[in-house]
Write a structure and sequence with these properties.
It contains 16 helices and 10 strands. With 416 residues, the chain is α+β, with helices and mostly antiparallel strands. Strands 2-6-5 form a 3-stranded antiparallel β-sheet. It has a 3-stranded antiparallel β-sheet with strand order 8-10-9, with helices on both faces. A two-stranded antiparallel sheet has the order 1-7. The longest helix is centred in the last third of the chain and has 44 residues.
Length: 416
């Protein structure tokens, strides 16, 4: 299947977004989907999300759908087969409701799908639509990133790890749970950890680290000599972690990018200009600015030239008012970048502390762990926080501050 570049101008509505919000349960129910089917389910959800609970069905142009999943072909038979598989796949969720009560449910991923006159129409069952639209925890799955994956196991591992990026670790999964997430439960071949590691874990980890905005490292825990549990430590991939994640054209290696960085323009603003105007347009303005004399602030001048579309020997010099406004926007941009960096640093610190908490919990015996949980739950003020902790335990992002304070009091200096 040939890959096709997505032209944002061809997309409308929700499809112009980069990410699709996926319910935690939805991520965990589709382990046996093929790579194409998993990509297809993400794009269909992205397209339908805004009217998920209000519209009886949703539509999308069939060729746009094929383009979005990276399937650039006139062969609609493969698309039909994938839609059929989604309608035949059983979705199962097991989660806490708003009152902290356990809720189990089952539904097909799609209640129906049809192709007619080049348009795909499809629908979700009301119960599943409600779960997909109003979860307590979202994973934002980037539809550009998913196009880079070539295996279903790699994309499945990415989806299941990405929702824990804030905590820095997935927490421990039993091998039974992990096999289910990867869609290989019930296979006698993968009962052996040696085979599971060689055929599933290692290739999937390599693909996630190469093609996505996160880096993951597997760790295992043993009972006796046998591996019993696995977890993945998670950090951001510095090469792909910002908003322009699809860097397949080698943006940071381009001459335009390097020239702008050399003039003091931030990485974030460079990629924003190129994303909005195109590399050729920005290069044209770079050339224009380089031909002007006595320019005190090339970056400010360039900002005005890009916004006002200055052209050589035609457009007038930017007015003092325009330069003043550009300088004001430049200062605002620098403040915004500093605030962004501060948020990034805070995320790294939270991830470090969550990893320390995971290690502290692992060192406690079962009796101590039960006592720790009861003591912590008793300290929480509201039912929402308690329900969140019952679901996610010591990896609960909602209770992060309370969790860190609890362990600091229990073990002074734990986070030093």
């Amino acid at each position: 299947m040939a890959q096709a570049t997505i032209d944002p101008d061809q997309l409308t509505g929700a499809l112009r977004r980069d990410t699709v919000r996926k319910n935690v349960a939805a991520i965990h129910i589709s382990g046996k989907l093929t790579l194409l089917q998993r990509k297809l389910s993400n794009v269909l959800l992205l397209n339908a999300y805004d009217t998920l609970t209000s519209a009886a069905s949703h539509t999308i142009d069939a060729r746009t759908l094929a383009m979005m999943v990276g399937y650039n072909s006139n062969d609609m038979d493969t698309l039909r087969a994938s839609l059929r598989a989604l309608a035949e796949t059983v979705a199962e969720w097991d989660m806490l409701d708003e009152d902290g009560r356990q809720e189990w449910g089952v539904s097909s991923l799609l209640s129906f799908a049809k192709l007619k006159a080049g348009v795909c129409e499809y629908a979700y069952s009301p119960a599943l639509a409600q779960k997909l639209h109003d979860p307590k925890i979202y994973a934002l799955i980037n539809v550009h990133i998913q196009r880079n994956f070539t295996s279903g196991h790699g994309l499945a591992l990415y989806e299941n790890c990405y929702r824990f990026v804030r905590t820095g670790s997935t927490g421990w999964w039993t091998l039974e749970v992990f096999r289910k997430l990867m869609g290989v439960e019930g296979s006698s071949y993968y009962e052996s950890y040696k085979q599971l590691n060689a055929k599933i874990i290692k290739p999937a980890v390599a693909e996630v680290n190469k093609n996505s905005d996160i880096l993951i490292t597997p760790e295992v825990r043993k009972k006796g000599r046998a591996v019993s549990d696995i977890r993945f430590l998670i950090s951001e991939n510095p090469q792909l972690a910002m908003f322009n994640i699809d860097d397949s054209d080698g943006l940071r290696n381009s001459d335009v990018y390097k020239s702008l960085i050399g003039q003091g323009v931030s990485d974030r603003l460079v990629r924003q200009w190129i994303a909005e105007h195109g590399e050729d347009y920005v290069a044209e303005k770079l050339t224009y600015v380089s031909q002007q004399k006595d320019v005190k602030s090339p970056a400010n001048y360039l900002s005005v030239a890009i916004r006002e579309d200055y052209k050589p020997r035609v457009d007038p010099e930017p007015s003092p008012e325009a330069i003043e406004q550009a300088e004001k926007r430049w200062v605002e941009q620098q403040i915004e970048d500093q605030e962004f960096d501060a948020r990034q640093a805070e995320r790294v610190e939270r991830a470090r502390k969550f990893a320390i908490v995971a290690d502290l919990v692992a060192q406690r015996n079962p009796t101590q762990r039960d006592a720790d949980k009861r003591l912590f739950v008793a300290s929480l003020d509201d039912e929402l926080s308690r329900a969140e902790f019952r679901t996610f335990g010591w990896t609960s992002a909602l209770n992060a501050s309370a969790i860190f304070a609890f362990w600091e009091e229990l073990i002074p200096g734990a986070f030093d």
